[in-house]
UniProtKB/TrEMBL annotation:
Family per similarity comment: Belongs to the ATP-dependent AMP-binding enzyme family.
Organism field: Blastococcus goldschmidtiae
Domain AMP-binding enzyme C-terminal residue range list: 417-492
A Pfam family matched in the record: AMP-binding_C
Entry keyword annotation includes Isomerase: no
The protein's name in its UniProt record: Long-chain-fatty-acid--CoA ligase
EC number: 6.2.1.3
Annotated keywords: Fatty acid metabolism, Ligase, Lipid metabolism
GO molecular function, one term: long-chain fatty acid-CoA ligase activity
Boundaries of every AMP-dependent synthetase/ligase domain copy: 37-367
Length: 511
């Protein structure tokens, strides 16, 4: 028998097996009406009410429903219920500027746009055929009185979500995730992390980012409780771990640095000692962070490696039995590698040292971008754009980045996009944007500028010029001025030369 692997399965099982359990706990401060704690039965019932509402609006199978929201129970509902009806969910980064959001809504052709009330005023002019706020308006939209139309021909190869990600082009690309991609990621991830109905998951990751690494599906399908966290804050994370008995969290190294900082001022015993497992990715965590997480928090440190394009799970590094007796430093060193391929994934490096992957979590393609899709999947392998090595035991280590992308606080920034904006300042003759290592952000967006003849411009002028045009986290945190930029014989800026002085002494060229 062959039953299509669709994301319907996760909420359906949550309702059947764990219907009475509180499945999702929203923020108490959410705009009215607050959802407080929702049982999985209630989440499923609300999901059907959303599907029925979309039926009523005439949104068909395959059509896109976009949502811009901070982490919220309603965003989780959209991720669980919209693809389950055969429609496509497009969760958009809430930190983007209105113009960036507008581009994405237009590019994916969303007919419905859902907007977090907190973002209502800043996204004022962004429109779609139907736009609703995710507070009161969303509640009024829900149709509890009619059953939704079932998805007539469920197809595991149909697109479930489109996740826009900044890459090597000025505009973000829409990563098309199929139901099969999400299913395999969720199940494999759950298996490797041994998720069970005893787990309590705190959403320390933004849910829009690669659908919260697909973990909302894992947690729902296996009956784990999900606690919404709207804004990342180290002390608040510790408080939630204590209050809700959290056992699993995921996030970029910057999140764990914030927790470590907060732990130094924490009164009493750190909550979750010997209970919490954290999953880290987005950038290579320094061994020092790993050792501190284990020693100062007593939390289990796990690393994964992957991309939005791979759902994201490619490799995983869980502390193995063999590490139990190692000295902390040696143990941290082992855990600082990106990990070994997850079950069903194959990894190799190309001649130029680029990390390549094959597996069922690899994207179908980029939305309406056949050239980028062909390039990414050339030769039947997915090209990650990351440089790295694979040792005899199959452990992948990421050592540099081949693609022109900066990762700051776990979010991708396209250098080219920032260069375009800086260059649009009339006093800028030339610009190169690079990432430089930074303790807090991992990498810091830095612009190297050559001023046009006869012109004058300051760092503050450039920062002010960028404000409003691109998301705040993409704006250079530092601007340096040079007389000229190193170029190749063909006139191409040699970014690696510009980067050299900043990365001197570093073991690897990513942070
Ligand atoms: P995104 O698609 O925004 O999730 O970003 C994916 C990128 O994050 C990858 O291509 C890597 O450059 C980086 N990344 C993710 N996980 C790791 C990791 N464990 N170690 C090093 N870099 C990572």
């Amino acid at each position: 028998m062959r039953v299509p692997l669709t994301t319907r399965d996760f909420l359906e099982r949550a309702e059947l097996v764990y219907g009475d359990r509180i499945g999702i706990v929203d923020e108490p401060t959410q705009p009215a009406p607050s959802l407080g704690g929702l049982s999985y039965r209630e989440v499923a019932r609300r999901g059907r009410a959303l599907q029925a509402a979309l039926d009523e609006l005439g949104i068909g199978v395959g059509e896109r429903v976009a949502i811009v929201s901070h982490n919220a129970a309603r965003l989780l509902e959209v991720l669980l219920a919209v693809p389950a009806s055969g429609r496509v969910a497009v969760p958009i980064n809430f930190r983007l500027s209105p113009e960036e959001v507008e581009y994405i809504v237009g590019h994916c052709g969303a007919r419905v746009l859902l907007v977090d009330p907190e973002l209502e005023s800043s996204l004022g002019h962004v429109t779609a055929e139907h736009r609703f706020g995710t507070g009161e308006e969303y509640e009024q939209l829900l149709r509890f009185d009619v059953e939704p139309r079932p998805w007539a021909e469920p197809d595991e190869d149909a697109t479930a979500t489109i996740n826009y990600t900044s890459g090597t082009t000025a505009r973000p690309k829409g990563v098309q995730m199929t139901h099969r991609n999400l299913w395999i990621n969720a199940v494999t991830f759950g298996m490797h992390m041994q998720v069970s109905d005893r787990d309590v998951y705190l959403h320390t990751l933004p849910m829009f980012h690669c659908n919260g690494w697909g973990l909302p599906y894992t947690m729902a399908g296996l009956g784990a409780q999900q606690i919404v966290l709207r804004k990342v804050d180290g002390a608040e994370i510790l408080r939630r771990v204590e209050e809700h008995g959290v056992t699993v969290m995921a996030g970029a190294p910057a999140v764990w640095n914030a927790v470590l900082e907060a732990a130094a001022d924490w009164d009493g015993e750190i909550p979750g000692r010997d209970r919490v497992r954290i999953i880290v990715a987005g950038a290579p965590p320094p061994s020092k962070t790993i050792a501190r997480v284990e020693a100062e928090l007593g939390w289990e440190f796990n690393q994964i490696y992957g991309l939005t394009e791979t759902a994201p799970l490619l490799t995983i590094n869980r502390p193995r039995a063999e590490y139990d007796d190692l000295e902390p430093e040696e143990r941290a060193k082992r855990l600082s590698r990106a990990g070994v391929p997850a079950l069903g994934t194959r990894m190799r490096t190309s001649e130029s040292g680029e990390v390549l992957a094959q597996g069922n979590t690899v994207l179908a393609g980029y939305w309406e971008n056949p050239d980028a899709s062909a390039e990414a999947l050339e030769g039947g392998w997915f090209h990650t754009g990351d440089g790295g090595t694979i040792d005899d035991g199959g452990y992948v280590t990421i050592s540099d980045r081949k693609k022109d992308v900066i990762i700051t606080g776990g979010e991708n920034v396209s250098s080219i996009e920032v260069e375009d904006v800086v260059f649009s300042h009339p006093a800028v003759a030339e610009v190169a944007v690079i990432g430089v290592p930074d303790d807090k952000w991992g990498e810091m967006v830095t612009a190297i500028v050559v001023v046009a003849e006869g012109e004058q411009v300051t760092e503050a002028d450039i920062v002010a010029h960028c404000r409003g045009k691109i998301a705040g986290y993409k704006i250079p945190k530092r601007v340096e001025f040079r007389d000229e930029l190193a170029r190749t014989a063909t006139g191409k800026i040699q970014k690696f030369k510009l980067r050299e002085s900043f990365w001197e002494g570093a073991e690897r060229q990513v942070n």
